[in-house]
Amino acid sequence: MNGTHRLAQVPPGVQCFVGGEARRRRRIEEAVTAVFEGWDYEEIIPPLYDYADVFAGEALAPKTYSFVGRDGSVLALRPDFTSLLAKIAAGRLRDRPAPIRLYYSGEVVRYEPPKAGRQSELHQMGLEHLGGLPPAADAEVAAVACECLETLGARGYVLALGHVGVFTGLLEGARLEAPTLERVRERLEAKDASGVREALAGAAVPAEAKEALARLSTLAGGRSVVEEATRALSFSPPARAALSELRAVVSALEGAGLAERLAVDLGEVRGLDYYTGLVFRVFAPGLGFEVGGGGRYDTLLARFGRPLPAVGFMLGLDRIALLLERQAASPEPAPVPAEAVGGPDLGPALAEARARRAAGRRVRFGAGEAK
Amino acid sequence: MSLLTVALSKGKLFAGTESLFRRAGLPFPDGGSRRLVAPAGDLRFLFVKDMDVPTYVEYGVADCGVAGRDVLLESGSDVFEPLDLGFGRCRLVVARPAGSPAALDGASTVRVATKYPRVAADHFLGRGLSVEVVRLAGSVEIAPGLGLADCILDVVETGRTLEENGLVPVETVAESSARLVVNRASFHARRSEISCLVETLERAVER
Lengths: 371, 207
Fold this sequence. Notes:
Chain A is an alpha+beta fold and 371 residues long. The mean pLDDT of chain A is 92. Chain A has helices spanning 2-6, 20-38, 82-90, 136-152, 164-170, 178-189, 193-200, 207-216, 224-232, 237-255, 300-303, 317-327, 346-358; strands at 42-43, 49-51, 66-68, 74-77, 100-109, 121-130, 158-163, 220-221, 262-265, 278-283, 292-296, 310-316, 339-341, 363-365. Chain A is 39% helix and 18% strand. Chain A contains 13 helices and 14 strands. Chain A starts with a helix and ends in a 6-residue tail after the last strand. Chain A is globular. The longest helix of chain A has 19 residues, at 20-38. Chain A has three domains: 10-157 and 284-335, 2-Layer Sandwich (BirA Bifunctional Protein, domain 2), CATH 3.30.930; 167-256, no CATH class; 339-371, no CATH class. With 207 residues, chain B is an alpha/beta fold. Chain B has two domains: 4-88 and 177-206, D-Maltodextrin-Binding Protein, domain 2 (3-Layer(aba) Sandwich); 90-176, Periplasmic binding protein-like II (D-Maltodextrin-Binding Protein, domain 2, 3-Layer(aba) Sandwich), CATH 3.40.190.10. Chain B is 29% helix and 32% strand. Chain B has helices at 14-23, 53-58, 69-75, 117-126, 160-164, 184-189, 191-206, and strands at 4-9, 37-40, 43-48, 64-68, 80-84, 90-97, 109-114, 130-135, 151-156, 167-176, 178-182. In chain B, a hairpin with a 2-residue loop joins β2 and β3. Chains A and B meet through α7 and β8 of A and β5 and α6 of B.
């Protein structure tokens, strides 16, 4: 019984796209990858699975679909592209001088409870700038992200920029137990200042740093937040250094005419095991969650034996498609109607159809079909 | 641009929310209406179940809302909580029948009845106790007396309901109060409207 009902049932977390939906996705993908190409990024089509160790990051490992290969090795379906690209840059492309600019577009698979725009199967389009230093590479990557959204016709998009070095800098020298650190991070991420104070109560952190960490939750808004933070956190040299790096990226983007598109959010502290510098997320009115994001991850490539600084970002195709649909950005051009070609004799009918195809027309071949 | 949308529940936080909005001089729909979507001034209000407020806000259907910290803990929603509104104070506690041993480590598995299955599982598993969560929609207090569970995890304000049902609190899991929650995208994409609302409410809370 189970067997037959599975022939109809869809497993949770996967999707199927038909006709117009599929066309819309293709068009988004083409537009975005054309922007990547335009900034001289090279396409890379990495394998669908690799050894599970490649994806062993703290955040990804629990979301990875892994399986045992014939030789007993543990393999995993790719839960992201960045680790794969890092491995390839450090391996096959080891002799290529840095910086290396790579982009990808394809599906990843993750164990995710299906909610708020998350499926188990996600289509990601992204790029990695390997070997580039802040602020230039960071600003470039953020500018490419902006161009993608402009090309797609997304209205009112905002890049919310942060820098994890502000948070980690304030905690430098403090010995926080892992669960406490996670609670502080989680409450800060929720912009809950009193929750941050509560999580830090009794922790071996100087009072000044505690207050500054709680303050981070309110340091979100426009450009002036960088200056406000610089004044408030001047006692911490590493936090100050992170802020000046962030300021340089923000200034560069402003210089490029993107001031309207920028927000600063110092409470952006996700993926601390991964990100090491600039972090950003892309939001737009009409969608309650980000359409993409990225940041600097200077320690990942060392894991694969080629220590290179790196920065990248990714847009979720599924979310972009949803956003454009909600914003009703560009009216869908209707596909050219097909011309019916048929006739009693199959050979001449097929010849006619081929002739019209050669002229670039869309045909619906009807010869020999049951009436 | 569409009206800023606020998700509220008509449950136990309603009176506190209404009085806060009125004190802050913000628009609020007139009482007595049964409309679930009600515009008022330059805001649009949604009236939904308290457990659903974080969901509406997380998906961005509402730009912001008012939810208890207890509900936020249970929902695990990814929303901003920039403001403690100061009312609706209560505690999430574990309570057991009076007279049973205070320690919960006597049994191999703790059977807990609750409306907060996620909080309960995290709490007990997190401290190394196996747990069997009995999920109920209400009247949780009667579960231990009837043998459905060894203990309950529930919110208490005064503790009277617990007492009347022969239960005593043995552990506080979390303190709760009403929070302003904000959608993450709205926070940035509608920054000026949101920060204006947050500041207006903040001033009214401090008063």
